[in-house]
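Hey, resending since the last one bounced:
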Amino acid sequence: MASTAATTPSVNNRAALWVKPSRIAAAGAAAMAISALLLFADSSFGGPREPTGILKKDTVPVAVLPSQTMAREPVMRREPKTPTPAAPERPAEWGGLMRREAKVVVPLAADGDASKMKTSSGFGTVMLCIVAVLALAGFAQQARTALAQLLEQPEIQAMLGKGKAK
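The structure tokens again:
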């Protein structure tokens, strides 16, 4: 007799049992069927219903008295309009479609000005290198762990010829 451990696939964790495409598809189909059943059952029992009046748009309209429809004086006075200044004359060299600006010439830095430019300090450069090495080491450690977990899977070991063939 074959043992039951040899016939059933081993599962390393509980999440791997539930994260199978067939189980996810079955759960999705069950959720859609239940929601469709509830929607159909809600509309079929009791026939059409009157709105409950909970929403603001469902409230009863307020009756307007004739005295309220009369014209009232505004509470605030209007501010007088300020006159807009006339647009200045456009020079002929600007053209009709777009304004053409004069070309700006940027002066080049002289040799004496180059010494005044601020460069990074030695301490800042060293700290930048240390942080970059730490980030690279953290990424390498995560990649190594992920590769080790991937190579431990029975399917991968069977492909590589290291594990038992099923």
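The longest helix spans residues 122-151.

Sorry for the duplicate.
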